Structures are given as structure tokens and as C-alpha cells.
Amino acid sequence: MLTCPKCGSEYGYDDGTSYNCPECGHIWTDLSLENAKVKDSVGNELQNGDDVIITVDTKLGKDILKRGTKAKGIRILDEEYNGHDIDGKVDKFGSIYLKSSIVKKL
Prior knowledge:
about 110 residues; mainly beta; N-terminal domain of TfIIb; 3-stranded antiparallel β-sheet; 10 strands
């Protein structure tokens, strides 16, 4: 039995070329699962709840997030928002969208 990455159903099955979910109809492969992983600027896989640091100075409105600023408890977005694929909490800024390509996992 395989777990569907979309709905979490435990009834996924292998048809020889791909994996299928009978409950939601989702079809996936090992390659699509690897491509769906969100990685930081140095290639570490990011998970929900990870803490990261920002690796480049980033303009945020009138302010600038300096390199080395910590974002706590990130959340991987289901769909990208203007190229941003994670959401994290930064002191003095609150919750902000970030790109995984400019952060490094702690």
C-alpha cells in the first residue's frame, strides 16, 4: 500500500509505470515526488516547521531584511505566490512569503 501525496489515502497502488490513488485520482511517479521537494539555496530539503536564515539582503517595502536574518517555523505553500514558495515568521516583520532559493536551513 502506498500513501497518496495529495490526499493522504492509504490505498495508492503501483500500475507498473506510475502510482495511482483510487480515491482522488492523483497519479505520480518517483521523479515527480523528487521534483516536488522544496530545497534551499544549498540543496537541503525543507520541511514545514524548519528554521532558516536569509542568505542575501532582501528589500521588503521600505525596509531591508539583512543577510543572516532568521525566519522561524516555515510553511511550504501548496501553490507558489508570485514566485514565493515558503512562508515564515520574521521578528519585527511578522509572517512573510520567501523564496526557497534565498534561504538556508539551520
